[in-house]
């Protein structure tokens, strides 16, 4: 990704973002709500028009047909058929990916919905419906998972279970790009992309974040980076 610029509704939303991520890692895309995280993820999966810059996903342009069975994408909004059961939804996406029944069962189990597999999504809680969307993205064998705030609204036990599963996927060579506005999830990632107002503030590891700022928590560290940036801008230095 080099010099990525995205404009929506006549307003520039992403301002020349440049970064690269390694395979087999969990990358946290962190920043406050409205900073451009979702727009960046949409750009990477090919559903957002890019004004300028160069973007490559697994060596291909975003949205390329070659990526259809290589990339799993979970939006913030529930993106499954509410009048179908959990299992029916996952089987549908499995058929698109060429995956089998074993993959369906594994995906449903991974998100903790085995007991609800035969329930229609419309009868599930909001958190359960979000997990059904996640199961559809997990089915098959994606090499990249793009997850837009997948743990929002989930109880602590389910959140812990999902992060454990994310780690197991990374250990198998899958790359995960996980957005969140909850800074305490930073410690679960291998590397971090910190965003603010459509710009990349820093790319570093969780340990480097704390060491660089001298902070004891990711929240405090992010705020210190923002204050440093504001001070430089006020003094006329480049951000």
TrEMBL record:
SUPFAM superfamilies: P-loop containing nucleoside triphosphate hydrolases
Location of the ABC transporter domain: 6-222
GO molecular function, one term: ATP binding
CDD domains: ABC_DR_subfamily_A
Entry keyword Nucleotide-binding: yes
Gene3D superfamilies (UniProt xref): P-loop containing nucleotide triphosphate hydrolases
A Pfam family this chain is assigned to: ABC_tran
Record-given protein name: Multidrug ABC transporter ATP-binding protein
Classification lineage: Bacteria, Bacillati, Actinomycetota, Actinomycetes, Micrococcales
Domain of life assignment: Bacteria
């Amino acid at each position: 990704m080099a010099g990525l610029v995205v404009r929506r509704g006549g307003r520039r939303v992403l301002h020349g973002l440049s970064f690269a991520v390694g395979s087999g890692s969990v990358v946290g895309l962190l920043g406050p709500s409205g900073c451009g995280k979702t727009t960046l993820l949409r750009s990477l999966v090919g559903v957002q028009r890019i004004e300028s810059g160069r973007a490559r996903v697994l060596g291909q342009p975003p949205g390329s047909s070659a990526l259809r069975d290589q990339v799993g994408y979970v939006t913030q909004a529930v993106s499954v058929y509410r009048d179908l059961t959990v299992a029916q939804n996952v089987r549908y996406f499995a058929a698109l990916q060429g995956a089998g029944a074993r993959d369906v069962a594994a995906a449903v189990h991974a998100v903790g919905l085995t007991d609800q597999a035969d329930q229609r999504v419309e009868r599930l809680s909001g958190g359960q419906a979000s997990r059904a969307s996640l199961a559809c993205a997990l089915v098959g064998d994606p090499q990249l998972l793009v997850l837009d705030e997948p743990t929002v609204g989930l109880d602590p036990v389910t959140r812990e279970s999902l992060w454990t599963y994310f780690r197991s996927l990374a250990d198998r060579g899958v790359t995960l790009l996980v957005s969140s506005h909850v800074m305490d999830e930073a410690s679960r990632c291998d590397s971090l992309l910190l965003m603010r107002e459509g710009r990349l503030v820093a790319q570093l590891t969780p340990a480097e974040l704390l060491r660089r700022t001298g902070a004891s928590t990711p929240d405090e560290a992010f705020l210190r980076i923002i204050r440093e940036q504001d001070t430089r801008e006020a003094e006329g230095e480049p951000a």
